[in-house]
Amino acid sequence: MRATPHQPTVPASARPATPARALRTLLEGNRRFVTGQPRHPNQDAARRQGVNAQRPFAVVLGCSDSRLAAEIIFDRGLGDLFVVRTVGHLVGTDVLASVEFGVTALRAPLVVVLGHDNCEAIGSAIRAYDTGVMPPGFLRHIVERLSPEIVTAHTAGITESDAIGRRHVHNTTELLLDRSRPLADAVAGHRSAVVGLTYQLDNGRVHVVARHGLGTVPGQELGTAVTTMLAR
C-alpha cells in the first residue's frame, strides 16, 4: 500500500475534488444501481493498466456483510473507493489507522460509514441483551463491543433492530471524529467530510443518517442535486 498523491492516474475532472461532489457521485451511482442502469465505470482493462497510484475519492468504512459490496452498490470501479470493512463496522486502532491513511496520505475528500438493515451483528447483541447468553469464541467480542449501543438505545426507548443500526452508524461517525485527530482536523479544515449511510438490502437504496462537514463553506454547498437526494 503506497501513497503517491502527486502522481494522479485519473484526470482531475474525473475525480470529485470536494466532499459534496464526492457524496453526489456516490448517490448518483447508487441511483443507477437501484434503477438497474449501472455504467460500471473504471472497470475495464484500460483502467486496470492505468492505475499505478491510488487516488480514491472516498474512504468507505462498511460492515463486512457479503451483501454490502461498496463498488457494486455505488456503481464504481478500480481506484475509486478505499474500502475498510469489519463486522458491524466496529472501530479499532487498525480501522482508525486505515481511515487516517485514506484521508491524510491518499487525500480522499469524503469518509463514509456504511451500515445496513437486518444487521446480524446488531441482532446478536440484542439477543445477548435479551437472554443474557453470550455467543462463543471471538464472536463474544463483537457483542461486547456493541452492548453499550444496545443499552443506551433501550434506555432511550429504541428497541427495533434497524433503528438501533441507524443509531450505531450515526454514533460511529462521531466516534471516528472523536478518536482521530487527523480526521477531525481535515473536516475542520474543509478538506474532508464524514457521512453515515444505511443500505436497504431489499431495494438497494442508501439513506443518509449523519453528516459532518458538508455545506459549511461558501461555494461548497451540497447543491440542488445532492440536497434532493439527501431529502429522500
UniProtKB/TrEMBL annotation:
PROSITE patterns in the record: PROK_CO2_ANHYDRASE_1
Binding site for Zn(2+): C63, D65, H116, C119
Keyword terms: Lyase, Metal-binding, Zinc
Record Pfam families: Pro_CA (PF00484)
MF GO annotations: carbonate dehydratase activity; zinc ion binding
Gene3D superfamilies: Carbonic anhydrase (3.40.1050.10)
Statement: the UniProt record of this protein carries the keyword Lyase: yes
Organism superkingdom: Bacteria
Cofactor detail note: Binds 1 zinc ion per subunit.
Documented EC number(s): 4.2.1.1
InterPro entries, per the entry: Carbonic_anhydrase, Carbonic_anhydrase_CS, Carbonic_anhydrase_sf
Cofactors (names): Zn(2+)
Catalyses which reaction(s): hydrogencarbonate + H(+) = CO2 + H2O
GO biological processes: carbon utilization
Function per UniProt: Catalyzes the reversible hydration of carbon dioxide to form bicarbonate.
Family: Belongs to the beta-class carbonic anhydrase family.
Name of the featured protein: carbonic anhydrase
Species annotation: Saccharomonospora amisosensis
